[in-house]
Amino acid sequence: MPDFWIFFKIGLHHVLDIHGYDHLLFLIVLTVPYVAKDWKRIFILVSFFTLGHSLSLLLSVFNVITIKMSLVELLIPITILVTALYNLIMAGKTGKTSNLSFISGVTIFFGIIHGLGFSTYFNSILPGKPVDKLGPLFEFALGIESAQIVVVLGVLILAFIAQTLFRFNKRDFTLIMSSFIIGVILPLLTENPIWYK
Questions:
Q1: What is the pLDDT of residues 118-167, one digit of tens each?
Q2: From the CB of residue 125, how many other CB atoms can be counted at a distance below 10 Å?
């Protein structure tokens, strides 16, 4: 049982680590178009991320798939940027919350890419046969899911405060937060070493 908490905490830290803020940025930009009553949709989306992340870790554990880290480091901010731009385009439009297919696809893709980026570290802390890593992988996934729920709740509380105390409407809050995320992510894209090779 103590091993459960070890890998659960690694999953928590993986999401909540301020130095790896790309995960936090994605969760923020994923959540800002929604309000608390949309909690089922948000839960589905963050679960899609966990599914993609766990799937790619599983495939890497069994050496089915590998990817260059330089490509992963480029794809992660691109996925955040695409989600933020989608929010800008769709903000305030009717039917935004009813269509989850695009964002679900992006979320699974982000999870897969992010999992591949983490796979080298995950495999290094778990030497041994691939089948021995399945339990810790599940525990790690539970830690990720729990941390994501904490982040989503934080964003929803922030949205509630902005929309009730400061009288932002949902559309304006989405536009402001998505634009902020774009401002943070663009330097990560332009300074990526892949452009200078």
A1: 888 887 887 778 888 888 888 988 998 899 999 999 999 999 999 898 88
A2: 12
- The 8 Å CB, 24+ separation contacts for 173-180 are 173/32, 174/32, 174/33, 174/87, 174/91, 174/92, 175/87, 175/88, 175/91, 177/28, 177/29, 177/32, 177/87, 178/29, 178/32, 178/84, 178/85, 178/87, 178/88, 178/91, 179/84, 179/88
Contact criterion met (CB below 8 Å) for 94 and 100:
no
Among the listed residues 7, 47, 5, the one whose alpha carbon sits nearest the alpha carbon of residue 134: 7
Instruction: Tell me the pTM.
Output: 0.88
Tens of pLDDT, residue by residue over 153-168, are 999 999 999 989 888 8
In angstroms, the Cα distances linking 57 to 23, 99, 183 are 16, 28, 30
The whole-angstrom separation of Cα 79 and Cα 126 is 28
The pLDDT of residue 4 is: 77
Distance (Å, rounded) from C-alpha 158 to C-alpha 152? 10
Sign of the alpha-carbon torsion through 119, 123, 126, 129: positive
